[in-house]
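Trying the structure run again after the queue cleared.
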Amino acid sequence: MSDIDRVWELMETVHFCMFSTWTGSRLRSRPMSASLSRPDNAIRFLTDVSQHIYLRPSLATASRPSRASGFISHKGTVIGTKNHPSR
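Done. C-alpha cells:
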C-alpha cells in the first residue's frame, strides 16, 4: 500500500480535525468535520466566510485517526466557491 493510499484509509476513520488558518496577526483554529472526495483528491470543509481566509488562503489541519496511533497533519490552500471565490 502506498503512503497516499494509507493516508486516505486513515482519513476515512477521522471524525473531527482542527482546522487552522492565519488571520495576519494570529492563528485561528476550530474543530471541524471533513467531507472526503478521493476521486477529486480533495478534503472539503464547510466554514463561515471569514475574509482572512480569502486574503491568506493557507491552511493546516491536524487529526487523530480512530484506528491508529499518532496523528495526521495536512497543509493546503483554500479554494473558493462560486459565491465567494478565493481568486
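The first helix runs from residue 3 to 11. Worth checking whether this holds up in the mutant runs.
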